[in-house]
Amino acid sequence: MYIKRNYGFWMTFNWSKWPFIYGLLYGAVICAVSYAFHLNISLPWGPLGVIGIAVAFYLGFKNNSSYDRTWEARKIWGGIVNDSRTFGASVMAFVQGTNATEIKKELIYRHVAWVTALRFQLRLSRPWEHTENRLNGLYSPQVCEEYYQMLDGELAKFLSSDEIEKLGKKGNLATQILKIQSERLQELKDEGYFEDFRHMEFHKIVGNLYAGQGKSERIKNFPFPRQYASVALWLAMVFCAIVPFGLIDIFKDSRVEILWICPFLNGLITWVFFLMEKIGDYSENPFEGTYNDVPITSISRSIEIDLREMLDETDIPSPLEDVHGFLL
Fold first, then answer.
1. 39: which residues sit within 8 A by CB, 6+ positions away?
2. Which residue has the higher pLDDT, 145 or 188?
3. What phi, psi does 285 have (nearest 5°)?
4. How far is CA 145 from CA 89, 149, 216, 281, 287, in A?
5. Cα(6)–Cα(249) distance, rounded to whole angstroms?
């Protein structure tokens, strides 16, 4: 997620420059052929303008739908934040008895492990997501994280070696961690650390966490319908392919020097339409690990900080800072 006030123009252009370059070269070829061979290959601009309006409306529909997916993902993770804080506060208030301090730490750490596992799972790539060129370039940061490396790294900070071994390489670690958490809560209830009512409240929170995980997985595993995404791309390509013929019609009676404005205008029009298409394309998958995603790594760190502060710990990590304006 970009957190500065505005994307810079050159930053935006660098991200989307190829449509402009291709449009410029394509327009130059069409104008050169028309001028060199005295061919009347112009098309009336009026019908082309109607087509352009239709394509723009369709791109607007796609972008609105893509934004809805991103905003829904952010609301889901806002709910996960709230439920995490509620769980931490409940642990601190409900758990009473011998070794309560150690048990509170165990429960809260296991919850942080769940958030961590869910974050890594949502970063796994899908065939319809953007996985190319994440590593190179100032404006293409690499934030997709290696999934199983967390077994020896991130999860080891919060789970015992026995639990990590028990998890192994199961397909959905986040689901299994919440299962272990539920079983542990039942054991603590049986041992008298809290009574039935508080046990029910704990499981209500666990249910909410499962709901947040399931909603996130729904967005992650169900792509933006490809028929809508594909048609937007092909309509933009068809329209941009016929634009230079309409520009020739506008400038056909002008001086030769004016005629050569056509390639630049064609590149500019092509850039505008494909920029709109690309914005929607990069907003479809809010967990894929690119620069306009929901910053679940930063949100996870915030959850960890909040819960560990409830334990009055001092060696707490700092909030994540942006990298070139991007919050991961």
1. 33
2. 188
3. -120, 90
4. 30, 8, 17, 21, 11
5. 37
DSSP notation for 211-266: HHHHHHHHHHHSPSPHHHHHHHHHHHHHHHHHHHHHHHHHHTTS-HHHHTTHHHHH
Per-residue pLDDT tens digits for 138-152? 444 444 445 556 555
The single residue listed with the structure tokens 């390639």 is 263
Per-residue pLDDT tens over the stretch 215-272: 999 999 999 998 888 999 999 999 999 999 998 888 776 666 667 788 999 999 999 9
Q: Say whether 323 sits in a helix, a strand or coil.
A: strand
Please state, in angstroms and as integers, the Cα–Cα distance from residue 118 to each residue in 121, 297, 328, following that order.
5, 10, 15
pLDDT at 189 over 70: yes
**Exposure string (b/e) for 64-84, b if CB count within 10 Å is 16 or more?**
ebbeebbebbbebbebbbebb
Domains of the chain by residue range? 9-310
- Residue 177 to residue 171: CA distance in whole angstroms: 12
Distance, CA of 53 to CA of 67 (rounded, Å): 21
Structure tokens, 205: 């929170």
Query: Cβ(167)–Cβ(173) under 8 Å?
Result: yes
- Token readout for 123 is 């970063």
Please state the three-class secondary structure of 274-301 as a single string.
HHHHHHHHCCCCCCCCCCCCCCHHHHHH
Residue with tokens 């590149």: 267
Output the pTM of the full model: 0.89
Q: How far from 129 is each of 36, 123, 178, 290, 301, CA to CA, in Å?
A: 44, 11, 28, 10, 25
pLDDT band at 301, cuts 50/70/90? very high
